[in-house]
Specification:
By secondary structure, this protein is α+β, with helices and mostly antiparallel strands. The chain contains 10 helices and 13 strands. The protein has helices at 31-49, 61-86, 181-213, 216-222, 224-253, 257-263, 276-284, 312-353, 362-373, 390-404; strands spanning 2-6, 16-18, 23-25, 105-109, 118-122, 126-131, 134-141, 146-147, 153-155, 160-162, 167-169, 174-176, 298-300. The strands form 6 sheets. It has a 3-stranded antiparallel beta sheet with strand order 6-7-8, with no helix packed on it. A two-stranded antiparallel sheet has the order 1-13. The protein starts with a strand and ends with a helix. The model is unreliable at 307-312 and 355-388 (pLDDT under 50). It is a multi-pass membrane protein. It comes from Saponaria officinalis (Common soapwort). Belongs to the DHHC palmitoyltransferase family. This is S-acyltransferase.
Length: 405
């Protein structure tokens, strides 16, 4: 039966959804505002104070306008790539409602302090799969209740398992994974080129001023915006430029940032390396997989799960309930048996009072006790004593089994 709520409204991760689930942000999406300002503000300053002064500095009249147009288009392009990186599903793997039951196995574990081993329910936390002939370990995620595919990891910030998890970038406010890594690399590489372009044009503007005034100090006083932009772009290049170079190395070797930092010291063979050319083609020329989550779909109520395999806890509760029920039945049978013995005794006394007087001796008492303990077949339509009833014998077996357990 369909629910009136959608998937994004009951999402268990830490994501932020906009436009009725069409846009997916990370929990730290506010940092995206800082990143936008770090790109937009320098570009506006450049267009207002540097590119405007370069409009008529070239022999060709349109060359100065070309610098202004390129700066505006390049800035918009970088901002769009930033939005594509942070506002989409990075490759979130849907959670399971229940753990995979077929993976449960029963193993015997010795009880503390000695004694008989008790069965316990064990769940394998690590499994091995073969990737291109190389064994790769996959781990079970307690939060998402699934075995993570190779190259998948759980992001503690977004609280999701992400396919081909690279890292969680606070500057874009989103995880970087299978579905947005291409846009992330294009964003940082384009931001690097934008920094180089702004730095070069600001330096060109300073050159023109130095040629006019024959003094560097006078040129710096006349165009402080160019000086500030050159310093800003120089610092930014160390960050985005170094990040671009590092990811070029990762792409050429088909690694992720998580794998490089986690397994670098192990010197293990990379099972995903297909050669430098094929690795670049895999990142930039393959079709991006569709999202595995339908955030705008209505929540479907799952039918109650029927477990065909009982756990030791369930078996213990069932056994305890069975013993208590058998004890109650045994008490009722015992009362009926005692009542029957009482009527039988009264009947003997009544017969003795009718003309067959006899005194009960100690030997008769012992013989009567032995007759009660001897398992005889009850008469049809009459209930035997406690020791002779087949129901009581069955009950004794049940109680003995429960005590041994």
């Amino acid at each position: 039966m369909a629910n009136d709520k959608r998937v994004y409204q009951v999402w268990k991760g830490s994501n932020i959804f906009l436009c009725n689930g069409r846009i997916v942000f990370g929990p730290d999406a506010r940092s995206l505002i800082v990143s936008v300002l770090l790109i937009l503000v320098p570009s506006v300053i450049f267009c207002a104070f540097v590119a405007q002064n370069l409009l008529h500095k070239f022999p060709s009249y349109n060359a100065g306008y070309g610098i202004l147009v390129v700066t505006i288009i390049f800035t918009i392009y970088v901002l769009v790539l930033l939005l594509f990186t942070s506002a989409r599903d990075p490759g979130i793997i849907p959670r399971n409602s229940h753990p995979p039951e077929e993976e449960f196995c029963y193993e015997s574990a010795s009880a503390e302090g000695g004694g008989r081993p008790t069965p316990s329910l064990q769940f394998p936390r690590i499994k091995e799969v073969l990737v291109n002939g190389v064994p790769v370990k996959v781990k079970y995620c307690e939060t998402c209740m699934l075995y993570r595919p190779p190259r998948c990891s759980h992001c503690s910030i977004c609280n999701n398992c992400v396919d081909k998890f690279d890292h969680h970038c606070p500057w874009v406010g989103q995880c970087i994974g299978m579905r947005n890594y291409r846009f992330f690399f294009m964003f940082i590489s384009s931001a690097t080129l934008l920094c180089i372009f702004v730095f070069a044009m600001s330096a060109l503007h300073m050159k023109f001023l130095v040629d006019d005034h024959q003094s560097v100090l006078k040129a710096m006083k006349e165009a402080p915006a160019s000086v500030v932009l050159m310093a800003y772009c120089f610092i930014a290049l160390w960050f985005v430029g170094g990040l671009t170079g590092f990811h070029l190395y990762l792409i050429s070797t088909n690694q992720t940032t998580y794998e490089n930092f986690r397994y670098r010291a192990d010197h293990r063979r990379n099972a995903f390396d297909r050669g430098c050319v094929n690795n670049f083609l895999e990142v930039f020329c393959t079709k991006i997989k569709p999202s595995m989550n339908k955030f705008r779909a209505f929540v479907q109520e799952e039918p109650p799960r029927v477990t065909t395999r009982s756990t030791p806890e369930m078996a213990e509760h069932s056994r305890r309930d069975k013993v208590e029920e058998d004890l109650e039945i045994g008490d009722e049978i015992l009362k009926l048996s005692q009542r029957h013995d009482y009527y039988k005794t009264e009947d003997i006394k009544r017969r003795a009072s009718d003309g067959f007087p006899r005194e009960s001796t100690e030997s008769d008492y012992k013989m009567g006790t032995e007759m009660q303990d001897y398992p005889s077949r009850p008469e049809s339509g009459r209930l035997g004593s406690f020791g002779t009833s087949p129901h009581i014998l069955a009950f004794n077996d049940i109680v003995s089994d429960s005590r041994r357990a």
